[in-house]
Specification:
This protein is an alpha+beta fold. The protein is 51% helix and 13% strand. Strands 2-3-1-4 form a four-stranded antiparallel beta sheet.
Length: 173
């Protein structure tokens, strides 16, 4: 009878060890599955981000014709009007106006496209300090835009003005 009790004790401790081994094995399996799912999710998000950035680059790389307005002739002063060596200025060449956009289409000036919203907000702050209104078009990419013009010529003028102040500006539709 003493032997049978010892056998029972050994049998019970073996089941506890099996339970611990099973729990450790299941934990390892769950960690590995979580790791694989996490890697898959990260790769999917990276691919989505790359596609959005490529689309933004294609939008930004679209050819934009920037024509500077003709320089206005200086107003003659009373002293220069009597100078015989001064020749009259030729009239400014007329430019063909940009084609009128289809109904509801506006030209905007884009000052940047950013993957992180904080960078876009920083540029908006700089624009506001310079006296311009700006908005962030949510993304990614987060696009910073200012102005909305029915005339491309007006949008080009604003873009040139912003470039002179150190901003990278393009005209977009």
């Amino acid at each position: 009878m003493i032997m049978s009790r010892k056998k029972k004790k050994k049998k019970g401790s073996g089941q506890g060890a099996n339970l611990v081994i099973s729990l450790i094995t299941l934990s390892i399996i769950f960690v590995l599955v979580g790791y694989l799912i996490g890697n898959y999710a990260v790769k999917a998000l990276q691919q989505q981000h790359r596609q959005a950035m490529q689309q933004a680059r294609e939008t930004a790389a679209a050819p934009v014709v920037v024509s500077s307005p003709p320089a206005a002739p200086p107003a003659p002063s009373s002293a220069s009007a009597t100078t015989p060596t001064q020749q009259p200025q030729p009239p400014a060449q007329s430019q063909t106006p940009a084609p009128a956009p289809s109904s509801g289409e506006l030209f905007k000036v884009q000052v940047g496209a950013f993957s992180e919203r904080a960078n876009a907000e920083r540029v908006v702050t700089q624009l506001k300090e310079a006296g311009y209104e700006a908005v962030i078009i949510s993304g990614p990419p987060h696009r910073v835009q200012t102005g909305a013009f029915s005339s491309q010529e007006n949008a080009n003028r604003l873009a040139e003005e912003l470039r002179k102040k150190g901003f990278e500006a393009i005209v977009v539709r």
